[in-house]
Amino acid sequence: MSIQIRVLIVEDSEDDIILIVRELKRNGYDVIFEQVDNYNDMKTTLENREWDIVFCDYSMPKFDGLSAMKLLQEVRSELPFILVSGAIGEDVAVEAMKAGADDYIMKDNLSRLSTAVTRELNEYKERQEFKRMEEALQILVKSTVIKTGEDSFRKIASSIKEWFDTDVAFLGQIIDGDNIKTLSMVIEEDFKCVCRDKMKGTLCELIIKEGFLHYPESACSLLPASCKKCTGKDTEGLVGISILDESGKSIGLLWTASSKKLILPPRAIEVMEIITAKAGSEIKRMWAEEQLHQHNEKLEIQVKERTTRIMELERQRMENEKLAASGRMAAIVAHEINNPLSAIKGGFLLIKDSIPKDNKFYNYVDLIDKEIDRISRIVKQMFDLSKPYQGEISEFNPTLVIRDIIVMLNEFCYEHNVIINFEGHYDVAKITLSEDYFRQALYNIIKNAIEASRDGGIVEVNSRQHNDRFNIIVSDLGEGMSEEIRSKIFEAFFSTKRKDSNSGLGLGLATTKVIVESMGGTINCTSEKDKGTTFIIDLPTNIITQGNSTETVMN
Predict the structure, then answer these.
(1) Which of 115, 160, 379, 435 is the most exposed place for a label (fewest CB within 10 A)?
(2) Any domain includes 135
(3) What pLDDT score does 459 carry?
């Protein structure tokens, strides 16, 4: 069976074109070709038609091989380019290969032409497939970050299907231990509705049991009936992974299947772990919202039923609202942190191996790696804020940590056209606190100051140590606040930012206050309308030596 090939031939000799086409046909190619011999015709043809490969003579009256190669690199650089010439020496051939030619063939010896074409077409196909996967991977990582709820689940399933180039993708949640709730299932371009089904004896149970499952081919031999039911067709290739919560318990699964052989692309397992972490976070967040919703409904019923005890119920309602607010804070903050964390992990995965050690930005690799781990720890710590203090206490140099935070915020400053001025000394005495909590509190305050600054503004960061106390002062020259607003800024869910902005839900300063107080410190704010705002954080230099007074604050 002939293989169709679309060939653009840059050549001025009709006889040579006939010889080239004849050689390709002799070796099983069905050749569709067009001949050009000048710059304009070649450019027009490249821009308006699809080609598989380009042949080019080295020397022509109106054009030459190197110019043609340069044009190809500008317009369609991915296409294979082979020089076919009778007037080319070895030195010229080497020069052409260095300039970007994929191969060269002598006109008086075309026997190697078919072999070269086959090789270049295979490599071209591999390059195109790799490019497709890389583009799909970037879309996968970016798009899943900005979605929440059902939109997030739908995007995860469709993106995984697109990345693996499969027929069906499934994302499900484990309910009551032995049932699976379909969060999203995409077959071709259709999305299936949410439903529940028994897990026992199914493909889902097998994936949950194994944790990670990959069958390049013959996957239907696992559970023929289940595979047929799940995918709607005979399954050849399959890959699936369970979704774990922070304790390692399976709370769901993600799988995708194909009627063709399924070979895992590079970094497939790492990418699936990142995506399932995002899915797991969203599952937990929605579960927390559901629990909170049920709690609020029960509370309202109690208020209505026990009207004779209205004063007592009012007290209980206020206490429960505070507890509910803490629960909402934990659930939402975990969600807010995990969204950018998924992007950071995905982006770091894409770029870390491409940065050589001699690159001037290579030192940022370890910094990013360290900060990713720190953010992961913060997610768990936020759930523990209403419990006794559990942050890991260590001795560290606060000046170095402040400089780290400023480096992390460089890009954010650039986006807001703001400069940070920091006055601190490296030889300052070390302090003994939770470094993670210290970082989080400072990050929130400095980032808040950047957001509040005017275009071209300056944020001043100062630190000072006096006896057993350490102070950090962060000032901006923004619009400032009225006394009414200033008195509410540490309340949970209170925000002066637009409701449609990407700046969070008014939890940053409330969380910061809880963190600072849990370390035995205080945070105060002064502000004047149109003159800016200053935050002062006062912390003990050694939380271990604070005695019972600090423990009381933390508990």
Answers:
(1) 115
(2) no
(3) 96
Burial class (CB in 10 A: 0-12, 13-18, 19+), 280: buried
One domain, residues 537 and 392: yes
402 with 530, same domain: the answer is yes
Give the residue numbers spanning the domain of 50: 3-130
Q: What is the pLDDT of residues 406-429, one digit of tens each?
A: 999 999 999 999 999 998 776 677
Beta strands at 522-528 and 532-540: parallel, antiparallel or unpaired:
antiparallel
Q: State which residues of the chain have pLDDT below 70.
A: 1, 87-88, 129, 132-149, 188-196, 223-233, 308-309, 311-334, 377-391, 426-427, 492-493, 497-507, 544-555
- Asked if residue 399 and residue 310 are part of one domain, the reply reads no
Give domain status of residue 140, yes or no: no
Reduce the DSSP state of residue 250 to 3 states and report it: strand
Assess whether 253 and 272 both reside in one domain: no
204 φ/ψ angles, rounded to the nearest 5 degrees = -60, -45
Edge to edge, what strands does the sheet with 81-85 contain? 29-36, 3-10, 53-56, 81-85, 103-106
With 0-12 / 13-18 / 19 or more C-beta atoms within 10 angstroms meaning exposed / middle / buried, residue 382 is buried
pLDDT digits (tens, 9 = 90+) for 161-178: 887 888 888 999 988 878
d(CA 425, CA 443): 19
**For residue 61, what is the domain's CATH number?**
3.40.50.2300
Instruction: Note if the pTM is more than 0.70.
Output: no
Tokens of 265: 């692309």
CATH code for position 178: 3.30.450.40
What Å distances lie between residue 12 and 15, 56, 62, 71, 254, CA to CA?
Answer: 9, 10, 9, 17, 57
Task: Identify whether residues 542 and 398 lie together within a single domain.
Answer: yes
pLDDT score at 196: 64
Contact 214, 237 (CB under 8 A): no
